[in-house]
Amino acid sequence: MNWYKVVASYDGTDYFGWQVQKDLPTIAQTMQDVFFKVFNTRIILRGASRTDAGVHALGHVAFFSTNLQCSTESLKFAWGNALPHSIAIRELLAVDTIIHPHAYIAKKVYWYHFFVDTPSPFAARYGWQVFKKIDFDTLKRVLQLFVGTHDFRAFCSSEVQGNTVRTVDSIDLVYVPEYGAWRIEVVGHSFLRYMVRRIVGAAIHTASDSPYCVEYVRELLECNDPNHRLLCAPAKGLVLQSIEYRDAK
C-alpha cells in the first residue's frame, strides 16, 4: 500500500464544501471520482479541514492510500489534468505511512477578503463587498479581542457540540492592492465551524454604521452568549490559505 499527501487549491463557489455529502457536489467527492475515472481504483481522501459551501482554498491538505504502482509525478500529472479547472493539485508527496490529517498540525492560516469599493469582476467572487463605511480603527480593535485563548461559543455555528475553547495566535489586517481588497489573516491551530466568518462578520458589523460597540463584542466573548445579531460574513470571502505541520509527512 502506498500513502500520499496531497495539497490542493480550489474555487469553492460551485461546491458544497470539502466533505463528501450525498447527492451534492463537493471537493473531496469530485477529486475521488476523477481519480477513479482515470485510474479505475477508488481512494478516500482524509482532509485536514472541512471547508464549508462556497469557501475557497489555496493549500488544503489531505491524505490517501492506494495500491497503484506508478511514480508520484505520473500520478499527479494524470489526476491533475483530469480535474475540473476549479480544482488544482499543487503538490503530491509520497509519505512513509498514513497519519491522521489533524495530527502534527502546527497552524492553519485563513484569509478573509472584503472590498470597500466596487471590485474588479475578476476578484468579486472571492470577497465580500461592504457598502457601509468602515471605521478601520474600530475594526482593528475588535479583531484583536479575539486573539488569545477564549471560549468561542458565541462565535461559531450553533450546531457545534463539545469543547468550544480555541486559541487564535494572531489576526492581521492588510490591504492587497493587486485585488483592491482588504485581507484579514487569522492564524491558529484549529477552528470551529463558522468561527472565522463569525469573527470577521462581528468585527466589520461593529466597525460600520451599527448600534454595537467594541465593549459589546467583548462582553459576548466573555459571556459565551450565542444569541446576538452580529453578522456572519459570507462564505465567498474566506480562503484556507495553508496548513502547516510540525513534521514533514
Please characterize this protein's 3D structure.
The chain is α+β, with helices and mostly antiparallel strands. The chain contains five helices and ten strands; from the N terminus they run βαββαβββαβββααβ. The chain has helices at 27-39, 72-82, 136-145, 195-207, 214-223, and strands spanning 2-10, 46-47, 56-66, 87-95, 105-115, 128-129, 148-151, 165-176, 181-188, 238-245. It is 23% helix and 31% strand. The protein is globular and about 60 Å long. A hairpin with a 4-residue loop joins strand 8 (165-176) and strand 9. Strands 1, 2, 3, 4, 5, 6, 7, 8, 9 and 10 form a ten-stranded mixed β-sheet that branches. The two termini are 16 Å apart. The chain has two domains: 2-103, Pseudouridine synthase I, catalytic domain, N-terminal subdomain (Alpha-Beta Plaits), CATH 3.30.70.580; 107-244, Alpha-Beta Plaits (2-Layer Sandwich), CATH 3.30.70.660.
Task: List the defining traits of the structure above.
2 domains; alpha+beta; globular; single chain; Alpha-Beta Plaits; ten-stranded mixed sheet; 249 residues
